[in-house]
UniProtKB/TrEMBL annotation:
Belongs to the BexD/CtrA/VexA family. It is found in: Cell outer membrane. Residues 155-220 form the Polysaccharide export protein N-terminal domain. Residues 325-371, 407-452, 497-545, 597-642 form the Soluble ligand binding domain. Residues 1-20 form the signal peptide. It comes from the Bacteria. Residues 242-317 form the SLBB domain. Residues 88-129 are annotated as: Disordered. This is SLBB domain-containing protein.
Amino acid sequence: MLKKLILIQLFLFVSFCVVAQIPSLSQEQLRQVQIDNLSDDQIRQLVAEMKRNNIAFSQIDQYAQQKGIPSSEAAKLKNRIQQLNLDKELDSKSESTSKQKDQYNNREIEDATDEQSIDAKTSEERKQDMRKKKIFGSDLFSNKNLTFEPNLRMATPPNYRLAANDEVIIDVYGYSEVQHTLKVTPDGYIRIPNLGPVYVNGLTMEEAKNRITKQLSSIYGGIKSGNTYVQVSLGSIRSIRVLLIGEIERPGSYTIPSLATVANALYVSGGPNENGSFRNIQVIRNGQSIVTFDLYDFLANGDLTNNIVLQDQDIVKINPYKTRVELSGEIKRPAIFEAKDNETLQNILNYAGGYTDVSFRDNIKAYRVNNKEREVINISAAEVAGFKLKSGDQFFVDSILNRFSNRVTITGAVFHPGNYALESNMTVGALIGKADGVKEVASLSRGIIRRLQADFTPAIINFNVQDAIAGKQNLLLQKEDSVVIFSKLELREEYQVKITGEVNQAGYFNYADSMRLEDLILLAGGLKDAASLNQVEVSRRIRTGAYDPNDTMKAIIQRFDISADLKSNPEAGAFVLQPFDEITIRKSPTYSEQANVQVDGEVVYPGLYTINTKRERISQLIQRTGGLRPEAYPEGAVLLRKTFINSGDSALLTNKLEVFYNKLKDSSDIERVKGTVERKEQLLGINLEQIMAKPGSKYDLLLEEGDVIKIPKKLQTVQMFGEVYFPKKVRFDKKYTFREYVSGAGGFTTSALRRRSYIVYANGEVKNTRKVLFFNSYPKVKPGAEIYVPSKKEKKGLSGQEAIGFASGLASVALIIVTLLDKIK
């Protein structure tokens, strides 16, 4: 029995959450809900039901207040949902629907982001949608931020009339205090305890208060004496049914709150359709039209006078429009407007917000459809106020011309360029004066006027700027003239000088008159430490002179000596630079920067050393390190040397290798060579034993900057790579030969290329296998050596088709030979 009661309670609360679908549920049943008696599974079932009906977590309190559910039970439900972490799930859009439900009228609004429904529309339907959007006022019913939801918390209107299912709250206070919350029965009565039924159906709140107070005075004597007071207010309101018909998006019968108005009902039904009137909306009550609602009064003036509160069984009828005109062009709200019989074009312009700032108001073009054909009508500004409208008229307001009636322009080397007003008999000199005169760099010999002729073709008129300023040349200006004053700096190539070599900031610098050599060196940040003070070279362009075919001179070269403090000597001080001169500061021939090399490994003092002389060799460097340690292995010493020193060496090496790359056929070889260059250093095999035994010999190389000499300890292993069955590292034994080391690794594989085997010694030296008669002579193995056995290249046999083609070719050749032999016989 308890389980059955819990299920009934669950059903009641779910009914409360979806009460819009079950309006017949009584208020008393909803008050009996007990959340504490529901299990966690039942709460989950309740949340799932709420999700299917698009009930959000934040809407529970609102539904509870509207339907009389105790707020304590609603709070308990929210706590239970939060404890089960279902609140976020409830607020998310878990259902795969593209529709949202309004909170008070169950209106379904198609989601504007539903791309599938948009794609499913035909082109004709899309055109209709676009036309509907152009109708003035249609966006009122498609705007999601504007719901027209009635305010259920406002004070009860004085003209509100009570009816069945309204909740009346009676509050008696004073000497006697009591409160009653009573529901109006279907017969129109409220039953007051200890008093009996009181008929209130059809009464306003003021009339109902008077009647209830009169009835209560019979049991509360203090009411007549003035010691007890009665207050009557409206609690939960009833729902009413209204019928929406005519040219409407979704005609039908709707259940709405009893405080809903005409605008609320229109929003519920989606508003007028494409043929519906926005200005002739009738409210029919008891078979008679009681009011006509005009939406334009609200849109244009904010007037909701005829937006009356609807009553049960009212009919809202939207009639077809009679007159619609379209207004476009330079107006503030282009749209399709509906007009009444007595309205003119001026009224439509007012609805459109009037003209824009750039509109041409003297003439409005109208396109009208007559009985047989179309016609164009010109409407002057004086005719707008009285112009009668005809349905289908299209009005276009053009924009003013993008030109000026009195504009002249001056640009270039003046202090205030820009547009100026053309005055009577204005000359070029007067316009220059209004621009505050010409700049010092202005070219005074010639200026130009760009003018549009009578047929609007361009023309150029030249004038002497200096004469125009002095008043000697009085050229009259016309509208749209553009005066250009040129700058001498803009009429020539930009003057620069260049300095390169041993200066701190080499590059190009702007030329200035009377610039000297030392001035440019200062602008370049001064000399570097390596700069030579002698033989500073200046090269100059050849600009003048008669043409001589035998003259091979390309530039003028001058050389000067300068001082360290850049004090001008007489010769250099008298030499003035010219535009485009190029100065070169060379490096001193006696200047030399330190060059360092690195010694690592088994020497007494390893580390970084500076090369002492240009002829210092490896043996001398080893002596400076204190000599080799006893455990050093000189046969394994290597020298790492840079592939290139500077960018010039890099470019030279790259150019040399391009030819080599093109000759290589194996891409792996190409990548190997490229990788060697990119490492920027290469391994150079040296024979340190010979170097130390014979200093200065051919083995004793001269040192270069960046060299790294590595001297390892005595090595005791041999490493094998390639086509052996078990490549590994083994202990060195001087008794073993090459083949014995390979045998210790399992021997050669079937794909081993024995005659190409080679050894890389610890110092980088490489020795390969030689052919002696019919036998392979393998190189000697030393400590730290690496044995490499390459593989044979795969031999590709003929495919089936190639074999058939080859056989066919041989057969053809054989047939030709036989035929020739027969002919010879």
